[in-house]
Amino acid sequence: MAAVPPQQSLGKAAARGTGMTLATQAVRVLLQLCSVVLLARLLTPQDFGRIAMVVSVIGVADLLRDAGLSSAAVQAKTLSGAERTNLFWANLGLGVTAAAATAACEPLIVRGYGDPALGAIVFSLCGVFVISGANTQFRADLTRNLRFGSLALSDVGSQAAGIVVAIALAVAGAGFWAIVAQQVVSAVVQLSVNIWSTRWVPGWWQRGVPLRHFFRFGGGLLGTQAIYYATRNVDNVALGAYLGATELGIYSRAYQLLMMPLNMINAPMTNVALPVLSRVQHDDEVFASYLARVQLVACYLTATLFAVAAGVSEPLVTVLFGERWHEVAPIFAVLAVGGLFRAVSQIAYWIYLARGVPGAQFRLYLVTGPFVIAAILAGLPWGSIGVSIGHSIAYAALWVITLVHVGRVAKVESRPLLLNALRVMCMVSVPCGVGAWLGTLVPAPAFVQLVLGGCGALLALGGAWVLSRKVRSDTALVIGFARRAASR
C-alpha cells in the first residue's frame, strides 16, 4: 500500500491543488464566456436547440464509456501497472461500444424529435466516445498523482482549440456544425496532451489480472450517474419534444449559463478533494476536518456566486447574449436558485466516493431520481419557466435528503455540514444575492447595472463580515486556504 503523506503535507497538496485548479478554471471561465458571447451572436436558438436535443439523449453513452472506472482508479489504495493497462483497454472497449450503440439509436432519435437534420449530428459525435474512452485512464493517472498542472494544460488547451475552431466555422456560416466540431476537436486535443503528460504507453491486455473490484466500485457509481444524468436531461428531452428546437435553444442557453460555473468549479474541486479525502478516509477526525474546510470554500465561492448571478440575471444575459436573448433571464434566475443547492450538495458526492460506498448512493438515487424527474416534468405545461421552478424545488429537497443519507451510510456527522451550509447561505449567499438585485433596479445601461449589482453584493458581504464573528472566522479560513493554494 502506498504511504499516506503526513497531514500537513497532504494539506499543502490539497491547497496548492485547489489553487491550481481554481486558477485554471478562471482561465476556462474566461474562454467559455468568450465562446458563449460570440456564438450567441453568430448562431440561432434553433442551432443550439438541435445540438441540445442530440446531446441530451446520447450523452448517457458517455457514462457507459467511463463506467465509473476513472473514479475507481483514483480511489484505489494501490494500482499496479497491469491493472492500469487492463483498465485502459476496458475503457477503450467501452468507448467503442458506446459509439456503436449511439449510431444504432440514430433512427429513434430522428423519429422521436421529428427532425431529419439530427441524424448527421448523431453520427458525427459517435467518434468522441472512442476518443474519450482512450483518454479515461490517462486522465485518471494524472488525477491520482495530483498532477494538477498537467490537468490544467490539458483542460485549457483542449477548450481553447475547440472554441477557436467553433468560432471560425460559425463565422463561415457553418451553423450547428460549429458546435459539433468544437466537441470533436476538444476531445482530440485533450487526449493528445494527456498522452504527452503521462508519457505512458499501455501494453497488451494482461490475462489473469482481474478488474472485478474496479467494476464493482464503478458499477455502483455508474448506476448513480445514470439516474443523475436522467434527472439533469429530462428537461431538455421533454422541452425539445414538446415545444421544439427554438424553445429548447432558449432554455439551453440558461441551463448552460447555470452549468458553466458548476462544471468549472465542482468538477476540478472533485479532482482535488477525491484523492485527498480517499487517502485519509480511515482517519475520522482528519476526514471530518478536511470536509468542513472544503465545504466552506464551496459555500462561500460557488453558492454565493449563484445567489449573485440570480440577482443580476437580466443585465447579465443582456451583456452576454444580447437583447434578442432576453427570454433567457427569468429562466436563468430560477435555475440559479437550484444551482445554489446543487453546489452545496457536492460534498455528499465526495463522501460517497471517498468512503467507498457508491452503491449506497445508487440505491438512494433509485428512490429520489423519479421524484426529481416528476418535479421537473410537472412544470412542463408552463414551458421553460415551469420546468425551471420544478428543477430548483427538486434539487433543494434532494440536497437535504442526500446529506442526511450519506451521514448514516458513511458514518459521518452530517448535521454540522447541513447547519454550516444553511448558515453560510442565510448569512452570506442570500444577502449578497439581494444586494446584487437591488443594484440592478437603478435605471441604467445593462453593463452599469451589472457593475452596480456587483457592488451591492460586496456591500452585503461586508455587512455580514462586520456583524458576524463567525463570518469573519470563516473568511479568514477561506483566505488562508487561498494563500496556501497560491504558495509555491
Automatic annotation (TrEMBL):
InterPro entries: Poly_Biosynth_Transport. It is a multi-pass membrane protein. Belongs to the polysaccharide synthase family. Keywords: Cell membrane, Membrane, Transmembrane, Transmembrane helix. The keyword Membrane applies. Its main location: membrane. It is found in: Cell membrane. GO terms for cellular component: plasma membrane. This is PST family polysaccharide transporter. The chain crosses the membrane at residues 88-110, 117-138, 158-180, 297-322, 328-352, 364-383, 389-410, 417-440, 446-467. It comes from Motilibacter peucedani.
